[in-house]
Design goal:
Helix content: 25-40%
Radius of gyration: 18 Å
Shape: globular
CATH topology: Inosine-uridine Nucleoside N-ribohydrolase, Chain A
Strand content: 15-25%
Structural class: alpha/beta
Number of domains: 1
CATH superfamily: Ribonucleoside hydrolase-like
Distance between the termini: 21 Å
CATH class: Alpha Beta
Length: 324
């Protein structure tokens, strides 16, 4: 049975690999790709997404969305992904972006496809605007897999926060409170054994040796350098592809649990922190739920947090998708 999916992304190098994985999965039908400001300006993220679609030989419309966070100044990730978001490869797309705004497309596509999977790979601005305008779409989303946050661990843009959430924390707070069935895949689960090692990257380029295998490594050359020389990781971390792998095969997440999660918007040092109540100590009163929070009683566990993945199986899934 075909599973419908919509992808919201600020397409840089790891987003592109995640998009590729979805497009190369036989039982996944990507209805649309919506682009949000984040790693890259919307126009560049759109080029990167459209090039990836073309490389996969698919025909999926790519729509432009919010070009800045709800209230914050935008902060790009050129330092991590390179000037074009793709390690300086300067890929060019041949197809134009689709007509229409990403927020309207999210609303219309979700309404038209009950049970759809929503995967978010960037700041949550588009999704926040969509649920604010049409809160009824929440009921049509079967899973909302969010690459974002850091579950009680160090952040990657500040000591407390991961980039996607930090970039637009107000939008993230709206989405986390919306009632969407959020599965939070924090950046930390792509580290350690989940990093692509030198051997893994050689296997991709020399053994599998397909255009998609080369693309996976080549577009992430800047990210690899940042992972090693800035974050101190041993290899290439791919948070967006890990989140997409879990969207494709939920069993890759080997430990998960549901918790009350808040997004800090006001802290001087904690902006964008995903505060996970791991021990469920936040009190809540089901009789006094704010009108803007109809499905997630304040303090009640409502976000599924992924804590651990099967690193070997995640890599095997990546290899499978690049063999074509």
């Amino acid at each position: 049975m075909t599973r419908k999916m919509i992808i919201d992304t600020d397409t840089a190098s790891d987003d592109a690999v995640a998009i590729m994985m979805a497009l190369q999965t036989p039982d996944i039908e990507v209805e649309a790709i919506t682009v949000v400001a984040g790693n890259m300006p919307v126009e560049q993220g759109s080029i990167n997404a459209r090039y990836t679609v073309e490389l996969c030989g698919k025909h999926v419309p790519v729509y432009h969305g919010a070009d800045q966070p709800l209230t914050r100044e935008i902060y790009r990730a050129y330092f991590f992904h390179g000037p074009d978001g793709m390690g300086g490869m300067n890929y060019q797309a041949k197809t134009p972006p689709a007509e229409g705004h990403a927020v309207e497309v999210l609303i219309d596509t979700i309404k038209a496809n009950p049970g759809i999977i929503l995967v978010t790979l960037g700041p949550l601005t588009n999704v926040a605007l969509a649920v604010a305008k049409a809160p009824e779409i929440v009921e049509n989303v079967n899973r909302c897999v969010v690459m974002g946050g850091a579950a009680n661990v160090v952040g990657n843009i500040t000591p407390a926060a991961e980039y996607n959430i930090w970039c637009d924390p107000e939008a993230a707070r709206m989405v986390f409170r919306s009632g969407l069935p959020v599965e939070m895949v924090g950046w930390e689960v792509c580290r350690g054994e989940a990093n692509l090692s030198d051997a893994d990257m050689r296997f991709l380029k020399e053994e599998i040796n397909t255009p998609l295998a080369h693309f996976t490594v080549d577009c992430n050359i800047s990210a690899l350098d940042a992972n090693r020389n800035w974050l101190g990781d041993p290899g290439l971390g791919l948070p967006d592809p890990v989140a997409m792998a879990i969207a494709i095969d939920p069993t890759l997440c080997t430990r998960q649990s549901k918790h009350y999660v808040e997004v800090e918007c006001d802290g001087t040092y904690t902006r964008g922190m995903t505060v996970v109540d791991q021990l469920n100590v936040t009190p809540y009163d089901t009789a006094n739920v704010a009108m803007w929070q109809p499905l997630t009683q304040k303090g009640a566990p409502h976000i599924t947090v992924c804590w651990e993945i099967d690193a070997r199986r995640w890599k095997d899934l990546l290899y499978q998708t690049v063999r074509a």
